From TrEMBL:
InterPro entries: Acyl_CoA_acyltransferase, Bact_Acetyltransf, GNAT_dom. This is GNAT family N-acetyltransferase. Keywords: Acyltransferase, Transferase. Pfam families: Acetyltransf_7 (PF13508). It comes from Georgenia halophila.
Amino acid sequence: MTEPVAFVVRPPTRADADAMAVVHNTGWREAYGQQLPERFYDDAALGRRRETWRRVLGRGDLGYRIAVGESGGAVVGIAMVGGSLGDHPVRDLEVYALYVYASHYGTGIGQALLETVLGEEPAQLWVAADNPRARAFYARNGFRPDGARKVDSGLNDLAEVRLVR
């Protein structure tokens, strides 16, 4: 078990955009490093994520629920929920992002982020089929595969499954 760590979960500010991009980029590398090529985590990818978070946070409330987890004065986790995407959603809400640095796995930050942006509401999300840690986390939170599966050509043909609760 991971040592207890002090953290807070709070709404992000515009000033958090760059730190959020680093967590997002690093989260991808730590979760999918063996499944996706380096171009998904390189400096160009980080730059795109910075621009995305700056744009999202700069627009104000667009109906997203976003939170950051902070420990030791640094952003170490992010979460984002919004209206479901895609052609055939089965829930009104979708978890778009939930990333925590691997060094903070097991500390409760991921759980606190999910509870902050979603609570107990029904939702859907897509997760890599070969991501047992994430799938176990979501299963503990009531998410189950509903049989939907896709191969994402934009993610180097990464196989994903939809989880719902």
